[in-house]
Amino acid sequence: MAKKRNTSKSEKRVNPHALQNALRNLKSRFATDDIKSMKEVSGAYATGMPFALDMSYDTMIKRFHNPEQLTLNDILITSDITETEVEIIIKVAIAEARKSHIKRDISHLLPKNED
After folding, report:
1. Can you tell me the distance from the alpha carbon of 112 to that of 89, in angstroms, rounded to the nearest whole number?
2. Is 1 helix (H, G, I), strand (E, B) or coil?
3. Which 3 state secondary structure label does DSSP give 5?
4. How far apart are CA 99 and CA 88, in angstroms?
5. Is the pLDDT confidence value at 4 over 70?
6. Nearest by Cα to 93 from 19, 50, 42
7. Per-residue pLDDT tens over the stretch 74-84
8. What's this model's pTM, rounded to 2 decimal places?
């Protein structure tokens, strides 16, 4: 059985109303195609968002500032908590990740073309 981390003290710092407003704002911004960077998700309410995403603050910053590191679970949870279609979130994450992606050349691993 997985060990459950004790977050009760930290969770007390989360303002439920502020979190609800941040999630509502993100939902609206995703729906209107206003979010262009996954950083905007992590920046919506930095105190409460890690708890909503079920990850540490450092992990949230690392993944949402580098969307190529987001897991499918991160995307699904983001979809759940913002009540946004998964495809919309994937579209934003992929578009941002492509900006820093370096195309991988594996031609040296493939057979030589012997015409």
Report:
1. 40
2. coil
3. coil
4. 17
5. no
6. 42
7. 999 999 999 99
8. 0.82
